[in-house]
């Protein structure tokens, strides 16, 4: 299988070359030429597999035999050895219509660990086997940065720089990133919001001379391996919910807290492969560009709002372009026209049959801060289960769209200890995991800079050359 760009101007690439490219050289996102179809017989066989074996089965469909099976097994085993639950992503039943997929059992207590622990091992493998220089550059709204740093810190042949919006991530998210003082890690705290950080990253990756000179590699979900790794837990969650239901043959929905569209696109991919998900539900917060798109067909960034769920405080969703590609029947020319409209400051509009198709494929709800706090209190009182604010968005959407004869698996994308600022508003005292409690006493290492591409470039050139401009 080869990979092509959503904008149609990149020669087909193999799997490893696609991962190393990250953002397509034409500014598009890389997708497989064909999505593999999984038969009912294969789904039946996969139902009994543990998470790691299921990962290998799904990954092998996309990797073109470029990674020997024994090497792939070692990468998967190393990636998930640090997870605190043997199932990696266990499913808990909260009531007859709601199941929770816990994605926070990795080292940084967030769903990003599932993909980024593997990605760190994968980049290290490629560096060793192909002699590639790996300089990772990424932006984060909070969780990606910590997970990416944890995945590659101390690894030989790899350097990583992460941009995060200054003062707009939770304190635990900030500490998880900035208490790391390894020589191969640089944290840049940018005055601005996540969209500002993401814009700078995309501009640097679009500068092909700069990208090639400094061997830039992507860690954000613009990189297809992130999407693929996340696809695995959709299959796993579906199978586990099905197993827990027993003879109860209800349809299974999934509700996914989503800011950058990467996580929900992984579910879209799983469904196109043949996983019989009933409803794909997008849960957002008050930065609800995705809800507005599904409801009205208009995709246009709105006013940025700071919320209790900061990882979804995003107005420009990078992976939306991948969905648009399939919505437009894989017409790269049409995708390019739409994306140019967005780049020119105009909005994307789909209507008529296209909008009907969107609404048949996706459901969406933007939950308010008040709704989230109410749900956290409600489920704590009724079930004893503590939701984090992002997970509460997912549960709000679950309650809105789950109908008779359906159950919904709602994704718990982070441990509530990462967002204690919101939890404390409800006078709930939670016990912190030891790994998080210990962060408070550690020194921080970060460089606070203006929202300025030239300054980011200066920092990167010094870092990749073997030093750091300044750390404070």
What are the SSEs and their pairings?
Blueprint: E1 3-5, H1 15-21, E2 30-32, H2 40-46, H3 51-60, H4 69-80, E3 91-95, E4 98-102, H5 112-130, E5 134-139, H6 143-152, E6 158-165, H7 171-178, E7 185-190, H8 194-206, H9 208-213, E8 216-218, H10 224-245, E9 251-257, H11 262-273, E10 280-284, H12 289-296, E11 298-299, H13 320-327, H14 332-343, E12 348-349, H15 353-361, E13 362-366, H16 369-383, H17 389-401, E14 406-412, H18 420-423, H19 434-437, E15 447-449, H20 453-464
Helix pairs in contact: 3-4, 3-10, 4-5, 5-6, 5-10, 6-7, 10-11, 16-17
Describe the structure.
The mean pLDDT is 94. The protein has a 6-stranded mixed sheet. The protein has a domain at 91-108 and 226-426: Rossmann fold (3-Layer(aba) Sandwich). The protein is globular and about 60 Å long. β3 (91-95) and β4 (98-102) form a beta hairpin. 45% of the residues lie in helices and 15% in strands. With 472 residues, it is of the alpha/beta class.
């Amino acid at each position: 299988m080869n990979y092509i760009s959503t904008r149609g101007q990149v020669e087909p690439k193999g799997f490893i070359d696609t991962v190393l490219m990250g953002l397509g050289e034409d500014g598009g996102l890389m997708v497989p030429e064909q999505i593999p179809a999984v038969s009912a017989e294969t789904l039946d066989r996969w139902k009994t597999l543990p998470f790691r074996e299921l990962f290998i089965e799904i990954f092998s469909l996309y990797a073109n035999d470029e990674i020997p099976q024994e090497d792939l097994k070692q990468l998967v085993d190393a990636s998930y050895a640090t997870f605190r639950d043997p199932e990696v992503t266990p499913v808990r039943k909260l009531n007859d219509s709601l199941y929770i997929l816990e994605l926070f059992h990795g080292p940084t207590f967030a769903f990003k660990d599932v993909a980024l622990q593997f990605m760190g091992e994968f980049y290290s493998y490629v560096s060793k086997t192909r002699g590639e220089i790996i300089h990772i550059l990424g932006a984060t709204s909070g969780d990606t940065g910590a997970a990416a740093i944890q995945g590659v810190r101390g690894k030989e042949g790899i350097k990583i720089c992460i941009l995060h919006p200054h003062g707009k991530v939770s304190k635990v998210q900030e500490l998880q990133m900035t208490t790391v003082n390894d020589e191969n890690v640089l944290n840049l705290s940018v005055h601005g919001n996540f969209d500002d950080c993401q814009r700078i990253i995309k501009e640097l990756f679009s500068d092909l001379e700069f990208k090639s000179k400094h061997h830039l590699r992507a860690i954000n979900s613009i990189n297809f391996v992130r999407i693929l790794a996340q696809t695995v837990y959709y299959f796993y969650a579906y199978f586990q919910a099905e197993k827990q239901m027993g003879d109860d043959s209800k349809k299974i929905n999934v509700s996914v807290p989503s800011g950058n569209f990467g996580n929900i696109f992984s579910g879209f991919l799983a469904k196109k492969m043949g996983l019989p998900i009933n409803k794909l539900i997008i849960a957002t917060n008050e930065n609800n560009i995705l809800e507005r798109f599904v409801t009205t067909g208009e995709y246009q960034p709105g006013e940025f709002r700071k919320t209790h769920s900061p990882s979804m405080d995003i107005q420009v969703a990078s992976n939306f372009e991948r969905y648009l590609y399939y919505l437009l029947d894989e017409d790269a020319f049409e995708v390019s026209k739409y994306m140019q409209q967005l780049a020119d400051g105009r909005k994307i509009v789909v209507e008529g049959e296209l909008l009907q198709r969107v609404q048949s494929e996706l459901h969406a709800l933007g939950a308010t801060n008040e709704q989230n706090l109410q749900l956290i209190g409600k489920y704590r009182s009724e079930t004893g289960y503590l939701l984090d604010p992002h997970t509460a968005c997912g549960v709000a959407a679950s309650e809105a769209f789950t109908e008779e004869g359906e159950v919904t698996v709602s994704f718990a994308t982070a441990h509530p200890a990462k967002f204690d600022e919101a939890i404390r508003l409800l006078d709930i005292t939670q016990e912190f995991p030891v790994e998080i409690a210990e962060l408070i006493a550690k020194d921080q290492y970060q460089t606070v800079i203006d929202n300025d591409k030239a300054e980011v470039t200066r920092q990167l050139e010094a870092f990749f050359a073997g030093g750091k401009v300044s750390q404070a």
